[in-house]
Amino acid sequence: MLRSIRTLAALGAGLAAAGTLVVSAPASAQEDDFTLYAREVGADEEEEEEQQPPKVGDSFSFADDLFQEKGGERVGRDGVVCTVVRTGDPMDIQCVGTFVLSGGQLTAQVLMTVPLSETAELPEFDASVTGGTGDYRGASGQIRFTEDGDYQKLDFDLGE
Question: Which of 52, 78, 159, 160 has a CA between 20 and 30 Å from the CA of residue 14?
Answer without folding.
Answer: 78
